[in-house]
């Protein structure tokens, strides 16, 4: 684009000076900035094509590249190019048709549309080149809501003076006499209808944000452990009683 603009400006530089906006200077500076960035971008492309293939090596290589003076100079020129481009768009929107140089207005429009098209093509290529990878072996995400069987396993109780809470943290309404409440494993109570809807979407307590399913499993394991402990204790007591009784039956025979 810079070569056709340079040819046009060399042929119509003087007539274009009579327009109400200095579009000829804008096109000239814009083309000069593009030409200045071309060799730098070509050098970056050649360096990227020769980059090492190892993961750690390529990361270190890119860090060195982005820390170089050429990279910072290219960034400064890019920022200046964007600012100059916006200024030219403002001039173009506020300019009128130039009779002495009618081709200047059309050339400025062509430069603007070319820059926008280049930006869109770059975004499309970047999107198609760096699509997020799909992990086939990744485990499916755990459901956030609780199952109906888990909700039904949580005990129900009627509101009474012994209830710790006086209001439902879900609907923010006070408990009334004979309201059916559901006490979660963490000890917090809510209206059964309110907390059932909550748990279907999120299986955590609305107050302490503890996982209800995990707490239920932990309590079940504790009950099983206590049951096995009490069973073993009963068995030891029975065994000791049986031994004691057998000793009592053997003693009379000794006399």
**Percentage of residues in DSSP E strands:** under 5%
Distance between the termini: 125 Å
Shape: elongated
Strand order of the largest sheet: 1-2-3
- Enumerate the spans where pLDDT stays under 50 for 5 or more consecutive residues: none
Kindly give the count of domains: 2
Largest sheet: 3 strands, antiparallel
Give the tally of β-strands. 3
Roughly how many Å is the radius of gyration? 40 Å
Secondary-structure element string: HHHHHHEEEHH
Helix content: 55-70%
Mean pLDDT: 77
Class based on secondary structure composition and strand pairing: mainly alpha
Q: Number of DSSP helices? A: 8
Written overview of the protein:
The protein has helices at 2-12, 23-49, 55-66, 69-93, 102-129, 148-153, 192-201, 212-254, and strands at 156-158, 180-183, 189-191. The chain is 64% helix and 4% strand. The mean pLDDT is 77. A three-stranded antiparallel β-sheet has the order 1-2-3. The chain has two domains: 2-48 and 65-119; 148-230, 2-Layer Sandwich (Herpes Virus-1). By secondary structure, the chain is mainly alpha-helical. The protein starts with a helix and ends with a helix.
Descriptive tags:
255 residues; mainly alpha; Herpes Virus-1; three-stranded antiparallel sheet; elongated
Furnish the topology, listing elements before pairings.
Blueprint: H1 2-12, H2 23-49, H3 55-66, H4 69-93, H5 102-129, H6 148-153, E1 156-158, E2 180-183, E3 189-191, H7 192-201, H8 212-254
Antiparallel strand pairs: 1-2, 2-3
